[in-house]
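Journal club prep — side note

Before the paper discussion, L.F. wants everyone to see what a predicted structure for a comparable chain looks like in token form. Sequence:
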Amino acid sequence: MTQAHQAVQAEAIVTAFNQLFQVPEQTVLVAGASEPFYVPGAPSQVFFRADYVRSALHEVAHWCVAGRCRRALPDYGYWYSPDGRSEERQTAFFSVEAKPQAIESLFCEALNIEFAPSVDNLVMTSSDEALRTFTDRIGAWRTRLLSGRLPDRASLFKAALERFGGRGLIQ
């Protein structure tokens, strides 16, 4: 995918999100950040990296999972550890990431783009078994979500992505 095409896709995703949620949820999606981050406010802002489509979908998935109390906190109150995490910190990361990444996978599917789990740790020290367990958790969450347990905001956004994709704005 070319950089220009990626930017067009990202712009369409921002448009879809903002049309859905800017007024009722007082939240906007913002491209171009050097690092993804959520800032509560009026409006709240969900920042994603550069114009990366997968970053946008990932950050929206986190927003869809976050409850009202978490959405009142910068970055939903989550901690962040940079690359080179210990096995223990990586396991903690995996435990909070399975559900959002399952939702992200559904967003990718709606746009017919490839999903791959993100370990968010380039200097990964996790075992193959830990990765398999994480991938299995994502799959288990997908199954639950597809059986009608998709959060309302995620369901609305997924439907919007499907509509945008059907009109050819995202290919």
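L.F.'s comment for the group: The chain has one domain: 3-166. Keep this in mind when we get to the figures.
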